[in-house]
C-alpha cells in the first residue's frame, strides 16, 4: 500500500472522527425537551414512564451509550434517506400490511443500519484488496457507496416480501376463520361475541387483525365502522370484501352466517382457481424433470440390456 493511500485512509479517519465530534456537540447544545422537563417530574409515579425519559447515569449500559452517541447520526441519515427516496405513504402502507408496529422514521433508521452494514462489508473488502493488490481510491469509495445503496434497497425489498408473505398467510387462514365466525353466529351469538370467541380460540395473522377490530369495538367504536376501517387498511381485496360484507350485514340486518359461509366458499374457489392457473403457467417447467430426468433413465433401462447382449454376441 503506497504512502499516498495510507495518508488518504488516515485523513478519512480523522475527518470522520471530527464529524462525529461536531455532530455530538451540536446535539449536546440542543437538549431534548424530555430531558429538560424530567428533573421537575422526577417524584411522580414510574407507571407508564417511557425509556426515553430515564436519566442518564454513570452506570449507563454500552447499548444505551451507543444509542446516545450514534443516535443523532442515524436520525440525520434516516432523514436524508427519506428525502432521497421519498414514498413515506407507500412505506407506511407496507408496514401496516406486514403487521410491523413501527413508524416510517424507525424503518428509515433500519434502512440506514442495513446500508452501513453493506458499507462496512465493501470497505473491509476494499481494504483487503488494497493490502494484497492495487485498487484505486475512487473505485473503493464508489464500491462502498454502492454497498450502502444496496443495503438500503434490500431492506425495502424485504419489507415488501414480509407484506406479501403475511398476506398469503391471511389468505390461507381466511376460510377457516370465516367458517368459525359463521358457526358462532349461527349458534346464536352476537357478532361481537362471535368475534371474541374466534380471536381467543384461533391464532394467526388474520386473528391479529380481527383482534384489533375487537379492540376498536370495545373502546366504543361502532361495529360497522370498525370493520370499515379494517377494509380500508388491508391490502387484500377478499379481506376488504369480508369486512364490508359484515358491515353491511350488521347495518341492514342481513343473515350474517349465510354471508360468511358464502365468502368462505368464494375464497376456497378462488384459491382452487389460482392453483389451476399457476399449474397451467408452469406446465413447461413441470415437463423439465420428465424430459431431462425420467425419460433418459427410461431409455437407458430399455436399451442397455440390448446393447449388452449385442456386445456379448457380436465378436
UniProtKB/TrEMBL annotation:
Keywords: Cell membrane, Membrane, Transmembrane, Transmembrane helix. One of its GO terms (cellular component) is plasma membrane. It comes from the Bacteria. Pfam families: T2SSF. It is a multi-pass membrane protein. It is found in: Cell membrane. Residues 179-301 form the Type II secretion system protein GspF domain. The chain crosses the membrane at residues 6-27, 112-128, 134-154, 290-314. This is Pilus assembly protein TadB. It comes from Nocardioides gansuensis.
Amino acid at each position: 500500500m503506497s504512502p499516498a493511500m495510507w495518508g488518504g485512509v488516515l485523513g478519512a479517519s480523522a475527518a470522520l472522527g471530527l464529524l462525529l465530534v461536531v455532530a455530538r456537540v451540536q446535539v449536546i447544545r440542543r437538549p431534548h425537551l424530555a430531558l429538560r422537563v424530567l428533573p421537575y417530574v422526577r417524584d411522580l409515579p414510574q407507571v407508564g414512564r417511557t425509556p426515553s425519559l430515564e436519566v442518564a447515569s454513570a452506570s449507563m449500559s454500552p447499548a444505551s451509550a451507543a444509542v446516545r452517541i450514534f443516535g443523532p447520526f442515524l436520525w440525520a441519515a434516516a432523514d436524508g434517506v427519506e428525502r432521497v427516496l421519498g414514498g413515506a405513504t407507500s412505506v407506511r402502507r407496507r408496514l401496516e400490511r406486514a403487521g410491523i408496529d413501527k413508524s416510517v422514521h424507525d424503518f428509515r433508521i433500519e434502512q440506514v443500519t442495513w446500508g452501513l452494514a453493506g458499507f462496512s462489508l465493501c470497505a473491509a473488502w476494499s481494504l483487503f484488496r488494497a493490502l494484497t493488490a492495487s485498487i484505486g481510491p475512487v473505485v473503493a469509495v464508489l464500491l462502498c457507496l454502492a454497498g450502502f445503496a444496496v443495503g438500503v434497497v434490500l431492506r425495502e425489498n424485504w419489507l415488501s416480501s414480509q407484506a406479501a408473505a403475511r398476506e398469503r398467510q391471511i389468505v390461507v387462514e381466511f376460510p377457516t376463520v370465516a367458517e368459525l365466525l359463521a358457526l358462532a353466529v349461527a349458534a346464536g351469538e352476537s357478532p361481537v361475541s362471535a368475534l371474541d370467541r374466534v380471536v381467543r380460540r384461533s391464532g394467526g395473522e388474520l386473528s391479529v387483525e380481527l383482534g384489533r377490530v375487537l379492540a376498536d369495538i370495545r373502546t366504543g367504536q361502532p361495529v360497522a365502522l370498525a370493520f370499515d376501517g379494517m377494509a380500508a387498511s388491508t391490502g387484500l381485496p377478499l379481506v376488504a370484501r369480508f369486512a364490508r360484507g359484515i358491515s353491511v350485514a350488521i347495518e341492514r340486518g342481513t343473515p350474517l352466517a349465510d354471508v360468511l359461509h358464502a365468502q368462505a366458499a368464494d375464497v376456497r374457489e378462488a384459491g382452487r382457481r389460482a392453483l389451476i392457473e399457476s399449474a397451467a403457467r408452469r406446465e413447461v417447467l413441470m415437463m423439465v424433470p420428465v424430459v431431462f430426468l425420467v425419460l433418459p433413465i427410461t431409455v437407458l433401462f430399455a436399451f442397455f440390456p440390448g446393447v449388452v447382449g449385442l456386445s456379448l454376441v457380436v465378436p
